[in-house]
Amino acid sequence: MKTEDKFDLPQGTLDLLIMRVVALGPIHGYAIAQRIQQMSREALQVQQGSLYPALHRLEYKKLLAGTWKPSETGREAKFYELTAKGRTHLKTESENWRRLTDVVGLILKGTLEGTS
Amino acid sequence: MKTEDKFDLPQGTLDLLIMRVVALGPIHGYAIAQRIQQMSREALQVQQGSLYPALHRLEYKKLLAGTWKPSETGREAKFYELTAKGRTHLKTESENWRRLTDVVGLILKGTLEGTS
DNA sequence: ACAGATACCTTGACCTTCTACACGTCCGAG
DNA sequence: CTCGGACGTGTAGAAGGTCAAGGTATCTGT
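Structure tokens for the assembled complex are given below, as produced in the milestone run.
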């Protein structure tokens, strides 16, 4: 079977996606992965091995805050929320991402360069 | 005033940019960096420390082929060209990049704030 | 002729983040 | 009880960036 419809994230994008998902409301790690997958129409899939370290990083940097609570299924799970700092960060980083992809897209599409 | 208009490339994008520039015609490393910078309207800048290793990687993978020739200024320089394999690769990777950024952009854009 | 700037390439130490994989716990259902 | 799924942790390693230093060739000004 061809798994051509899933591909790697360039480094750095994961944090963004996570923060974006968390911005939608408190959610625990396991569910974040599912949410991203679903929101991307199954195009993206996040490995636990990258997800959790990322969450820890973000928490360490005070961009997210986590609290243990029982999940819907009864198990304890760590629910994350954006901190104020996280919200700001998300905003500026989204903007950066947009500019970055604009510029790269521009080069890739080869819209210009008319060096005669 | 913020000269915040240069930012890091996420890993993996550099190869794409390089290949795209090389696709425009034989060119040596030093000039590639300038070209990228210029094509991105100064938004991107490529460090030599990432540029050359990237070139070597691409050459090693047979996506680029390099030849030593005198440059316009008389110095010897290594001019790179895309191989057939490189051209194919560039094409599929560009497509992947587009899809990837589409999807990420879609998630980030989230016109779906508090409303559910 | 010499100093300095600029074009051009190389390399190494370091860091961050992704992957793969293995392990552990708590729960509900059969 | 056992099993599978929800949920989390940790380690090892590769990849690909950053910074920073080094080296040589050519041009320019004096």
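Helices of chain A lie at 13-22, 29-39, 48-60, 84-109. The interface with chain B takes residues 7-13, 16-17, 20-21, 23-24, 36, 39-41, 43-44, 94, 96-101, 103-108, 110, 112-113 of chain A (CB under 8 Å). Further analysis is deferred to the final report.
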